[in-house]
Amino acid sequence: MTKAPTFEGSGNWHWRKFIIMHNLSNKNISKVIKVLRSHGINGIFATTTPTSLTWKLEDLLNELIREDEYFRRLREEKQRMSSFYLDIGKS
User: Fold this and answer.
1) Could you tell me how far CA 48 lies from the centroid of its own chain?
2) Minimal CA–CA distance to 58: which of 4, 6, 14?
């Protein structure tokens, strides 16, 4: 029986899903994301930039993870803060 190869590198990107789109309009990007999510496909969605096209793949994936974690924490903090204030409603 052949042993599975080991993963090398410094990132934890091996266990993530990345959907990286290139040269699509904003409208088409939105369509792609909507269709994929409707089929239960989730992950880190990203588009290429002139800068990201020059990066090594591992560096790009690590940066996408950092950005994803940052925005995830931001959403969680926003949600925490919205529940912090009393909702007295309007009479």
Assistant:
1) 13
2) 14
61, amino acid identity: L
| CA–CA separation, 30 and 45 (whole Å) | 10
Burial tier of 71 (Cβ tally within 10 Å: 0-12, 13-18, 19+): exposed
Q: What is the pTM of this model?
A: 0.70
Task: Provide the mean pLDDT of the chain.
Answer: 85
Residue 19 bridge partners (DSSP): 45
CA 8 to chain centre: 22
- Comparing CA positions, the residue from 29, 62, 71 lying closest to residue 46 is 29
Would you give the end-to-end CA distance of the chain in angstroms? 72
